[in-house]
Amino acid sequence: MSAVPPGTLHGVGVGPGDPELLTLRALRILDDAPVIAYPATTRGDSMALAIVDRFLREDQVLVPLPLMFSPAQTPDDPAYDRAATVLAAHLDDGRDVAVICQGDPLFHGSFIYLLERLGPRYAVDVTPGVSSVMACAAAVPRPIVHGAEGLAVLPATADEDRMAALLSQADAAVIMKVGRHLAKVGRVLDGAGLARHAVCITRVGHADEAIRPLREALALADGVPYFTVVLARRA
Ligand SMILES: C[S@@+](CC[C@H](N)C(=O)[O-])C[C@H]1O[C@@H](n2cnc3c(N)ncnc32)[C@H](O)[C@@H]1O
């Protein structure tokens, strides 16, 4: 048995892009953690790391987790098992691990799959982050939802019929993970009567941020990137 008590697993939301949207709590946890883990592409790129790297120190261990950007990735993907095994080794040695998460860790975040695997075995602490949804609405600016309105939050990767059914009851909608699904998003929002005032926000808080009416985005020859949210509201 290990002589040291296990470390704590921290899920730390770092916001959608602008480092000014980091919370004081996130900065404190990042400053205290000896190990910083971050979701990365197979090339090593990480949007979450780019947001916080100016606040990290040389003595902190950086652990890339190749979790994102695989369209085939599912909750039972072995990539999550491998990531959990790497983090468990640090936790078993008594080191706290901060997993940095773009936006909020528990809102469509990869951290959810690590929490499922490691939560039953280790102490867990989550720092909420400013979600891309809130930052997108602020960037326009426009309300997400108001008064007695009901909001639907959907991934654009969902089946078209399911999206249409959920949107049929909604007064307002947030569509995540738009990317190559933009045409489908346009169709279902139109069918639900939500397309007219819909706005497409890409890479909010980054140098190449773009805000366009949905109809303009639909006319783009190159479509829109994965890091795009569509906000729609009947009113
Ligand atoms: C896996 S989800 C992660 C959401 C994140 N946890 C959050 O709270 O914003 C990825 C989706 O979030 C949205 N997203 C994340 N960052 C964004 C940004 N900077 N600008 C626009 N959309 C963003 C996009 O819809 C993207 O496809």
UniProtKB/TrEMBL annotation:
* Keyword Transferase assigned: yes
Concerning CDD domains, the annotation shows: Precorrin_2_C20_MT
The record's InterPro entries line, in alphabetical order, gives: 4pyrrol_Mease, 4pyrrol_Methylase_sf, 4pyrrole_Mease_sub1, 4pyrrole_Mease_sub2, CobI/CbiL, CobI/CbiL/CobIJ_dom
Q: What residues does the Tetrapyrrole methylase domain cover?
A: 8-212
The answer, when asked if Amino-acid biosynthesis is one of the entry's keywords, is no
Q: Which domain of life is it from?
A: Bacteria
Q: Quote the pathway field.
A: Cofactor biosynthesis; adenosylcobalamin biosynthesis
Q: Which EC numbers characterise this protein's activity in its record?
A: 2.1.1.130, 2.1.1.151
What's its top-level EC category? transferase
Query: What keywords were assigned to this record?
Result: Cobalamin biosynthesis, Methyltransferase, S-adenosyl-L-methionine, Transferase
User: Can you tell me which residues the record assigns to a coiled coil?
Assistant: none
Per the record, a Pfam family?
TP_methylase
User: Which molecular function GO terms apply here?
Assistant: cobalt-factor II C20-methyltransferase activity; precorrin-2 C20-methyltransferase activity
Please, one GO biological process term?
A: methylation
Name the family.
Belongs to the precorrin methyltransferase family.
Protein name stated in the entry: Precorrin-2/cobalt-factor-2 C20-methyltransferase
Organism taxonomic ancestry? Bacteria, Pseudomonadati, Pseudomonadota, Alphaproteobacteria, Rhodospirillales
